[in-house]
Amino acid sequence: MNEHLKISSSPCQPTTTRVQWIDIAKAYGMIAIVLGHILINGPLARFLYWWHIPIFFMITGIFLKPLTNPNDWKRFFMKRIRNELLLYVAMGGLLIYLYTVIHHKSQRFLLNHWFDLVLGGRTLNFYTSTFWFINVYILTIIVVTVMISMTKNWSIHLLLTISGLMIETSFKQITWMHLNGFAMMPWNMDTVMVTAFYAYAGYALFHHNRIWLERFKMILLIWLAAIGLIFVHQISGFSFRLSLKSHLMQSSLPMGIAIIVIPIIFSLAVMAGACVTAKSSVKFGLPLIGRHTLAIMYGHKLFLDLCLINGIKSVFVRLTIGVMVPVVLGIVIQKIKATFIKPTH
Hints:
Number of strands: 4
Mean pLDDT: 90
Organism: Lentilactobacillus raoultii
Strand content: under 5%
Structural class: mainly alpha
Shape: globular
Keywords: Acyltransferase, Membrane, Transferase, Transmembrane, Transmembrane helix
Order of helices and strands: HHHHHHHEEHHEEHHHH
Distance between the termini: 21 Å
Protein name: Acyltransferase family protein
Helix content: 55-70%
Low-confidence stretches: 4-16
InterPro entries: Acyl_transf_3_dom (IPR002656), Nod_factor_acetyltransferase (IPR052734)
GO molecular function, one term: acyltransferase activity
Number of helices: 13
Strand order of the largest sheet: 1-2
Largest sheet: 2 strands, antiparallel
Radius of gyration: 20 Å
């Protein structure tokens, strides 16, 4: 999830270091996720849910590529899948243990929730409530990589991804499978029919050309589309709710159209904002945050809970702690690894 590209003199052009606007877009998305978990069910939180998960899958799609031989597949599974799984298990086990200790839970509670790491999806709660994203992320990159490797025909790609999205939005919840009291499939695997569409959208829009977004006319057009959607929402009062973990997808608009248009337009608007930010002289540490979004994804629920335990109610202070403490820990861990673990070639 922390892949990087190369850039030259342009903040959006790939050639020598990380593509800065992608890091900044990830930072905006991660701040939105943490803020959404602080505000919970308010109007702003519901708006953030429109795009803060889809944007990460769109960014994921930028880095996917067709694999053409067995060695490519081996490297893909060893570096992308295995490493994510090991981190998922290690961080999940640690955070469940910390919750058990901090909240004085029983050993039975500990063992039951460790097993939830196997089931994944909606069974993951407390400090691991965001881990469903890792489940779906792993499944999504496998599915989309297989699809773009098997055929280069974009019309087949669109047919498969749009068909999957339409199937997923045609029902409210899984009713024929229950795990630990939740109506769900293991690892929320049915949600991949939605996230694969967003990942493929990122692949199709940016894989071959990542600099089109920095053009002023494109930025203006995307922002006007996003502002237009907000205006129409205010005037018409159309409803739209999106929570992929809970399979909550509701809209007074045709659901298939809403779940395609709304998240993609707002995700592109945030990416366009990131590209503008990348060209500015003041970036408020956003590139640094964007380089450590995985640490924030894993750790912010722990620190938000510690804030409440210690009586910290300020939204700004909790947001700052929830974002920056995992970033600092991520930097420390990276330096320790760099010092004591030699890279293998």
